[in-house]
Amino acid sequence: MATVFKNLLSNDVATTRTLLNEAVPITGTIVSGTYSDLNIKNYSHGMFQSVYDYPYLSSSANHIFDLSYGYTSDYSASANVQNAKKLNIYNQMAQVLVGYDVDGTVRKFDRNGDLTEGAKLETCVFINYSRLLTKDEFKKGNFRLTLSGSGGDKVIGDYGAQNDYRVNSPSGEYGILYTGSAAVADTGVGLIYYQAGVVVLTASADLFTNATDFTGTLSISGTADAVRERWIDNSFNNTTELNSTVYFCRLNNNEFNYSSNPTYLSGSKIVTKNVSSDPSVAYVTSIGLYSADNELLAVAKLSEPLKKDQNNELTLRVRLDY
Length: 322
Description:
single chain; mainly beta; 2 domains; eight-stranded antiparallel beta sheet; six-stranded antiparallel beta sheet; 20 strands
């Protein structure tokens, strides 16, 4: 227990933020073939389909993402398979990711992200990635998804999003997905919501061949199957945000040259002295951080003891990560 304390001043404390990135590949063999769909879980409610990296009954299986599908009321028809559920899926996702207009109406997903009267995404495939993979968010500008089609493979990406992303979503930042390497107005085929870990793709014919079948004749799980069959490759970098508080513990030349350890004294004599007139010497082995009422909150251990006497000064850097 310390007997001498030193207050930390404002210039003794600094905060930092570090972004750690990890590359994540999701191959088509995992999504659409390796385990003969034993890694695909369909639910009795039929509103989405879950994809795992191993057969989902295995204890080692990890959830990768969920697939779902929905559309606006413009595509609603009583004869459509799961019509009400498809409407609900679209509205639920739009409420969370796009929000409401001034009249309290749920906004539609917008191709350009400006929420004006421009082109909308009204029939959508939703890919909800597991937090295990996305961590705190997708890294901007490096999401790539390759889908097969009769006209050739299409590589979908958030090209240029590191310098061109939107912030007008209640769920955080998002970017526009394109099938080319350049961002061209009204050519977006989807949206990627970075912090939410959600990708929204248009289910129209400009992305999926025979996509008109998605609207009425296929169930939600059937649409999910059709998307997985076209899945060739997917890669992105996730981001983990590491926040740190750094405490600079400054030991001036006339401070902390005496130890509170009871073994520092032997017969009322300081054990580090050979001659009584010698200056006292201490060895720093740990740093304690205390609250205002002197309660120990954290202890930092040094890798080796550091000699401290009146002839030297030390600045010890203590970092707390969270």
